[in-house]
Design a protein that fits this description.
The protein is an alpha+beta fold. Helix content is 24%, strand content 32%.
């Protein structure tokens, strides 16, 4: 056998062994990079008036693109109590949400085009595929920390004030 062929065979076996040993590390590293929360978006003001007539100001991140809508709060470990995430669906339609890869329990508020809450999926379970869905066509979904809907006296018919709904509260003059 020619010496070059022996060297090539040795290199071939070494490369196979290296691949077998290193492949799991590359796979783990790529999954770790994928399963990272999205960086926070700028916060926008939103107001919800509960069934008791009290208006509550919240800071929300607004998700608009397909990637943002898919990522949402996945892999985030916390969310401040006066914050939320608003999903602008881009059109009025039936909404289906999941808690896959979501680490914190949430209340999901399904909101009609006029800003009225259609229904609430309260105390959703982290990791549960669901689906959690709207009771009819909605324009947006607002995710808050679990228990917030009860604490803020929110129910179907409560009003969410935000520019998307055309009912944004006017600043005092």
């Amino acid at each position: 056998m020619h010496p070059f062929n022996r060297q090539w065979q040795r290199f071939d076996w070494l490369s196979r062994i290296a691949l077998v040993l290193l492949w799991p590390l590359f796979a783990i590293a790529s999954c770790a990079a994928i399963n990272q929360p999205a960086p926070p978006h700028p916060f926008e003001a939103l107001t919800i008036t509960g069934d008791d007539g009290v208006a509550h100001a919240l800071k929300v991140e607004v998700m608009r693109t397909q990637k943002e809508l898919w990522t949402g709060l996945r892999w985030r470990k916390t969310m401040p109590q006066d914050h939320g995430m608003l999903f602008d669906l881009g059109e009025v339609r039936q909404a289906y949400f999941t808690m896959s890869d979501t680490l914190i329990p949430l209340d999901m508020l399904f909101i009609a085009a006029d800003g009225k809450i259609v229904n609430i999926a309260a105390m959703t379970v982290p990791g549960n595929a669901g689906p959690y869905m709207s009771d009819g066509p909605v324009r947006a979904v607002l995710e808050l920390n679990a228990g917030a809907a009860l604490h803020l006296h929110l129910g179907p018919g409560a009003i969410v004030r935000y520019k998307l709904f055309g009912n944004e509260a006017k600043p005092a003059q």
